[in-house]
Design brief:
single chain; two-stranded antiparallel sheet; binds FE2/S2 (inorganic) cluster
């Protein structure tokens, strides 16, 4: 029947206290486009990065090292380069050294506030879009395991800031050629530079970073330096989603660039 009391007492949009609207949603735009693009983009990246991380080859071509393999924490690549090699794991680590370091940027992006929104919508339809109800009747948010672990985001921020510093160091080293010394510049140095800028833009625009810098202050007037830094981060934070995609693409492109050089597909065009 159509009488309110005759409806089954269910949760969510079908709860008795909600307006009884027969349509699944009232949106007339292509609301599914954004989640569909998220799924396509993330699947492409997951496919590419999985192949590269497990390949354990073609990640170094002087003076460039792939960001997927830096810093190198295993013995098996310690002699390959002059960049950051902290042989913390010794020779017992037999798998690809990329797996040791990728857990940090992976965890950072997996727990990122923006990516959470994007992949909850794209992969889980929870909800698929604004004003489009999710298929599940129950919603526990991030209050229970495993999603409770999303709260670890700020610790991944600290680790990823270190990784970003290492990638910056790699970018500096890209300007030094073994035979010509400092001042080397090729197309690769520009690719590395662009990636380092985008990685920092993504890292510093993080919501946790914004809170670490300006959160829990009672009076901004008593903390002028933090207030100013908080203002900068807030402005970056506004573009966080854009930086998330731009840096995801750039880090894959840098790796692809090193792969093409190391596998002999082409030579780095040099300007100096
Ligand atoms: Fe996206 Fe922290 S990296 S919110």
């Amino acid at each position: 029947g159509t009488e309110p009391h005759a409806q089954p007492r269910t949760r969510g949009v079908n709860a008795p206290t909600r307006a009884a609207i027969p349509d699944r949603h009232l949106r007339t735009d292509r609301w599914w486009l954004a989640p569909a693009c998220t799924v396509a983009g993330l699947l492409a990246f997951i496919g590419y990065s999985t192949w590269r991380a497990f390949s354990d080859a073609d990640y170094y071509h002087a003076p460039y090292v792939s960001p997927f393999y830096s810093p190198c924490l295993a013995d098996r690549c310690a002699t390959m380069r002059s960049g950051p090699n902290w042989d913390l794991f010794g020779s017992w680590w037999g798998l690809s050294p990329a797996l040791l370091i990728l857990v940090f940027p992976l965890g950072f992006r997996l727990t990122c506030y923006y990516y959470r929104k994007a992949y909850y919508r794209g992969f889980w339809s929870s909800p698929p879009a604004c004003a489009v109800a999710e298929p599940r009747a129950r919603y526990t948010g991030e209050t229970r395991l495993p999603l409770l672990l999303q709260n670890a985001h700020r610790y991944f921020f600290y680790a990823s800031a270190l990784v970003a510093a290492v990638l910056t160091y790699d970018t500096v080293l890209a300007f030094r050629d073994e035979s010509y010394g400092w001042g080397h510049m090729g197309l690769g140095t520009l690719v590395f530079l662009a990636n380092a800028v985008l990685i920092w833009a993504y890292t510093l625009s993080c919501h946790s970073c914004r809170h670490i810098i300006g959160g829990r202050l009672k009076h901004f007037s008593k903390h002028p330096v933090r207030y100013r830094m908080w203002g900068w981060v807030s402005r970056l934070n506004h573009h966080h989603a854009k930086f998330a995609w731009a840096s995801l693409i750039s880090v894959a492109l840098v790796d692809l660039y090193v792969y093409l050089l190391a596998s002999g597909a082409f030579d780095d065009p040099r300007f100096f």
